[in-house]
Amino acid sequence: MSSAGEPTPGEEREIIEGMRAGDDRAFERMVRAHVGPLRAVALRLLQNPADADDAVQEAFLSAFRNFDSFRADARLKTWLHRIVVNVALQRLRRHKRQIARGAEIVDISELLPRFADNGFPEHFHRPWVQTSEELAARAQTREQVRQMIDKLPDNYRTVLILRDIEELDTAETAELLELTPGTVKVRLHRARQALRNLLERELELTH
């Protein structure tokens, strides 16, 4: 394996060829190479280690059973990534709000700008001059940012994770979440606004 743990292109080809030939060792190599990143994705979405582990196991089993559907022009990492995201989202839909979440959920309407009848923004006591990226860079640790994301309602948090962290495009996100592209764009915009204001609140408390 490469120093980062991800297979080199040559190693990935060997794994793919082995999987197509039904070689169990190829499956073991695939799991070892990709289990870490896939678990990180599942944990971000499900926010529960046990649920994330189950989702990853289910994703690998699905990949094993459906490897014939893997396209020759695709990347194995991307294909597995889509599978685990699908599994995690199915679990979110199935469990809905029953998934254990330690973070307090905020009312996103309190974090969005308000507009008067004339269409102009009402006074909002926190500044809007900085981008969410700039505020994230000022946060003390990545953990603080993660905690702020965890406070968003699921329908906004999931869109933000898929678009800004997992870097899926609008069409892919819409397909996975069974939403229209327009709805994805609206939720992403609101989620970014809410995250920015949560980070501002955190910075106000720590400075």
Automatic annotation (TrEMBL):
Residue ranges of domain RNA polymerase sigma-70 region in the record: 30-97
SUPFAM superfamilies: Sigma2 domain of RNA polymerase sigma factors, Sigma3 and sigma4 domains of RNA polymerase sigma factors
InterPro entries: RNA_pol_sigma-70-like, RNA_pol_sigma-70_dom, RNA_pol_sigma70_r2, RNA_pol_sigma70_r4_t2, RNA_pol_sigma_r2, RNA_pol_sigma_r3/r4-like, WH-like_DNA-bd_sf
GO biological process: DNA-templated transcription initiation
Pfam families: Sigma70_r2, Sigma70_r4_2
Domain RNA polymerase sigma factor 70 region 4 type, residue spans: 142-195
Gene Ontology MF terms: DNA binding; sigma factor activity
Alphabetized UniProt keyword annotations: Sigma factor, Transcription, Transcription regulation
Gene3D superfamilies assigned: 1.10.1740.10, Winged helix-like DNA-binding domain superfamily/Winged helix DNA-binding domain
Name of the gene encoding the protein in the UniProt record: sigW_1
Top-level taxonomic group: Bacteria
Protein name (record): ECF RNA polymerase sigma factor SigW
UniProt record similarity statement: Belongs to the sigma-70 factor family. ECF subfamily.
